[in-house]
Specification:
Helix 1 crosses helix 7, helix 3 packs parallel to helix 4 and helix 4 runs parallel beside helix 5. Helix content is 42%, strand content 15%. The protein has one domain: NAD(P)-binding Rossmann-like Domain (Rossmann fold). The two termini are 30 Å apart.
Length: 238
């Protein structure tokens, strides 16, 4: 199905498990895809023959915590492809296991930067071209602890809550100008790292990256044209 033919999609964290699933799904749907990551050498290896296509731009190394680098990536995407239709920001991370009085400020800053600050920087960077064309989709990745604080993961809960509030604010500010902004609330994602960290868990109950990518494609498509400012749960049976 050529749902995204001639549309331009930016996927951050494209060397990660979720990012690569999302980028591949868009490419299979005939989108032109900018794959953004800090890992220059991993992207050609991950995307193989597709990396040689003129329909893919491997933007690396790009530090999505650096506004200048992100703005240049966006500008180069528009130069190459003529427009920018979708941002899927998959960059994020987790630390937890300690109560607040034992949580370091370094952990707090790390999680706020990795989850919330990068979401703000990348969203801010794609807004000008989307506003110029009067259309665009921004999709961010939150998490269930962002919906309600949980013990021993206060910093992570706060960071992911910030992503949800950012989603809602972006939607409120720009939906009348043709933009749609939503976020996903994944359950435990079936990745090699999570399998290693939870050897006694049943990964059949978790969410696959391919399943999340399918939901992301739906939210980026015209079929989701009336979905604004939503925190979309995709939790499997976890």
């Amino acid at each position: 199905m050529d749902t995204f033919q001639n549309r331009v999609v930016v996927v951050t964290g494209a060397a990660g498990q979720l990012g690569r699933a999302v980028a591949r799904a868009f490419f299979a749907s005939r989108a032109r895809v900018t794959c953004v990551d800090r890992a220059r050498d991993r992207l050609p290896e991950i995307y193989g023959q597709a990396a040689a296509s003129s329909e893919i731009f491997l933007a690396a190394p790009v530090d999505v915590n650096d506004p200048g680098q992100v703005k240049e990536m966006v500008a180069e995407t528009v130069r190459r492809f003529g427009r920018l239709d979708v941002l899927v920001h998959t960059v994020g991370g987790f630390r937890g296991g300690t109560p607040v009085h034992q949580t370091s400020l370094e952990t707090w800053d790390f999680l706020m930067t990795l989850n919330a600050r990068t979401a703000f920087i990348t969203s801010q960077a794609v807004l000008p071209p989307m506003l110029d064309q009067g259309a665009g989709v921004i999709l961010l990745i939150a998490a269930r602890p962002g919906l309600a604080g949980r013990a021993n993961i206060a910093a992570y809960s706060a960071a992911k809550s910030a992503v949800i509030r950012l989603t809602e604010s972006l939607s409120a500010e720009y939906k009348e100008q043709g933009l749609r902004v939503n976020c996903l609330i994944p359950g435990t994602i079936d990745t090699p790292q999570n399998r290693s960290d939870r050897p006694n868990a049943d990964p059949a109950r978790w969410v696959t990256t391919e399943s999340l990518a399918e939901v992301i494609l739906f939210l980026a498509s015209d079929a989701a044209r009336d979905v604004h400012g939503a925190a979309f749960p995709v939790v499997g049976r976890s």
